[in-house]
Amino acid sequence: MRTVPWGLGEAAAAEVLRALRFRFHKWDTYACGQCLVLPEALVLTRAEHERVVAVVEALHGALGRLEARVRREPELLAYLGIPAPLHPLLAEEPETELQLTRYDLFPTGDGRLMVSEFNEDVPGGFNEAVGLPRLLAGAFPGLEFAGDLAAAFAAAFAGRERVALMYATAYSEDLQHMLALEDWLGAAGHRTVLCSPEHLERRRGRPAVMGEPVDAAFRFFPGEWMPRLPNFRLWRRLGPRLPMMNPLYRLVRQSKKVFALWRRPGLVDDADRAVLDRHGPFTEELDPAELPRLVAERERWVIKHAFGRMGENVVVGDLESDESWRRALAEALPAAREHAIQERFPVAPLDFAGGPLYPAVGAFLVNGRFAGYYSRAAARPFLNHEAYHVATLVEAA
């Protein structure tokens, strides 16, 4: 794994960023006073790329089999932190091929590829994952962009004429994803409608939005928020009849506590357990009785809420002082069952033009198959909204 510069002049690089904002709707290229799109690319060898694809597809398969065993078990769903009103919906949703996920793989110094969470419910990043490969195509002789996320979306919704793009309408960063998806599906001949899950209604016995029946939906609205919807009772009746990417039962994989759940006897077979253990760190439920040990072993542990997103409600002990670590534990303990304690693993830094950064190779899967890269790098071994996006290239075969 290495990095290469874009090799563009200042004006050309600025034009790429402008096109990313206005053609691919990536408005938040700046945050905290700096551009978060690095003018560099991460380069994988062909063997590294093939390894990444094998790892993420193996994880996806193992998690799917675990999900099938868990999603109709209220006790296990409660353990994962999934709200009780959703349990019947998860049990009744039919199996669907409409699936989108993203796995962020962290390289370690000893050669492992580790994942600290599974982005299974509403994974983002597809503006950059499609925009930069199209804007930088042909700029890197001997290297290529692997996958085509836009084409994978279009193929996934083939045969479904009208698609509802359901998102959390209060968030502009969510809208930018939907506008990109609207462009790609529209170019493939689909009719789309931008809406909130609150707009779901019944029309002539079918799921409908804005007065017209829809054939499928893309959900970019966190699943654990669904019971707050004013039309949740209607979702309870109509939801299982609406083909949707992603189904709500993906919350099983999204919960940070799934890392502890798969270690229970009988839930996964030996082969799947080996895959999950190889790439997922040891995790346990936050136990108030273990407080003295957790305080003493600050550098070993990370506190996570079951459904935190974008790094929120994540506290890395090694990056905290003794005092702030104790405070974080004290704040989490009143809701201990909603939290997990995960063993920290060492992320290997990589040299960039501005100095070493900690990378994560993000890989999208659509309907279970590799569809493109969304990689990031951060000044600390912790990804949040301040992480840089890094285009990902693969050495040509």
Can you tell me about this structure?
The protein has 397 residues and is α+β, with helices and mostly antiparallel strands. It has two domains: 2-256 and 349-395, no CATH class; 285-343, Dna Ligase, domain 1, CATH 3.30.1490. Helix content is 32%, strand content 26%. The protein has 13 helices and 23 strands. The strands form five sheets. Strands 1, 4, 5, 6, 7, 19, 20, 21, 22 and 23 form a ten-stranded mixed sheet that branches. The protein has a four-stranded parallel sheet with strand order 9-8-13-14, with helices on one face. Strands 15-18-16-17 form a four-stranded antiparallel sheet. The longest helix has 25 residues, at 46-70. The mean pLDDT is 95.
Summarize the structure.
By secondary structure, this protein is of the alpha+beta class.
Draw up the topology in text:
Layout: E1 2-5, H1 10-22, E2 30-31, E3 34-35, E4 37-44, H2 46-70, H3 74-79, H4 87-92, E5 100-107, E6 113-114, H5 126-135, E7 143-144, H6 149-156, E8 162-167, H7 172-187, E9 191-195, E10 200-203, E11 206-209, E12 212-213, E13 216-220, H8 232-238, E14 244-245, H9 251-254, H10 258-261, H11 270-279, E15 283-285, H12 291-296, E16 301-305, E17 314-316, H13 322-332, E18 339-343, E19 350-352, E20 355-366, E21 369-373, E22 375-378, E23 388-395
Parallel strand pairs: 4-23, 8-9, 8-13, 13-14
Antiparallel strand pairs: 1-4, 2-3, 5-6, 5-20, 7-23, 10-11, 11-12, 15-18, 16-17, 16-18, 19-20, 20-21, 20-22, 22-23
List keywords for this structure.
single chain, 397 residues, alpha+beta, Dna Ligase, domain 1, 2 domains, four-stranded parallel sheet, 13 helices, 23 strands
